[in-house]
Amino acid sequence: MGKSFLNPPKSRIILALDTPDKRSSHRVMEQCADIVDAIKINYPLVLTEGLGFISELKTEYGLPLIADFKVADAPVTNNRIARMAKDAGVDALMVHGFIGADAIMEIQEVAKEEMGIFVVTELTHPGGLEFTRSFSEPFARMAAYLDCFGIQAPGTRPDRIQVLRDTVGPDMTIIACGIGAQGGTLETAVQAGADYGIIGRSIYEADNPRQAAMDLAFSEAFPATEQTGNELLKEVHVVRYCSETDSYTLRAEPADEMRDQVKQFVQYCRSHGIGLELTQSEGVLLKKKRSLIHVYTTGSCLISNLPSAAEGEKIARDFMQEVRTDMDA
Ligand code: BMP
Which residue, 175, 200, 227, sits at the end of a domain? Predict the structure, then answer.
């Protein structure tokens, strides 16, 4: 495997810093720099603030920086763009796959060992299905053959991430766009084979970008139970954030010593007509304020319709306490 141009994944968030200007960018970065793994910067911000802002961000926050310039031109122009990006201190440059192997190799010549190349494969929006879908596997195969640092994949389509991971093998870095505002989730993207998720609006448009980044971070990095530390819950993590309804879905696993009690509780609810009975294997559905807890017969819980991850964690804890009290009685 070649040089890595990014830090090892922690939160697995690459922040799409698509903020309108320097001031708003610094406001978000000051809150999130210690949570996100890297920054991705796109044309609008660079066109507003200039390439010098890339160096400023790098000096200020010390994070790897990806330039999402989706380079897609004749080699003479691609090379100039790549050189300017490299001189500005960019760590990795995004280029379109459709420019072909020779053009990508020329960009690699410019980048040398100082800048990684991410090849864009399949776009996340519905139009991405029209054309890019048909070519995403050949693009990925080409990127692997040319030994590029990584590929972009659609976080909105985990099944496609899986196909692309199978195509490039285990070592290439996959960054998945479309997490959060476009409907993808970091958990499913990572499970499908992505290394990092690119998240923009769900963080920088949030009232509290820091909290949003913490909530969206990959659960292994910031497990909610680590913060609450209690013997009722083994694990709580966000599995989905819906930007349209601004609501969260969490999965909660009872502590090992609680699991049998939760299983018994499901049977108790079913035999006493409590909650909404689902089929035998699916457990019971319980309404808690404006949220729903789906308690599976295995004891696992899926809590949906939540205004925040913190609220979900509280509901999970209260629920486990209720189970313990009822089952002990
Ligand atoms: P947001 O999380 O706000 O949807 O931002 C996604 C970012 O990823 C944007 O910078 C966008 O240009 C980029 N992106 C994308 O959304 N879909 C793609 O297929 C490729 C992208 O680079």
Answer: 227
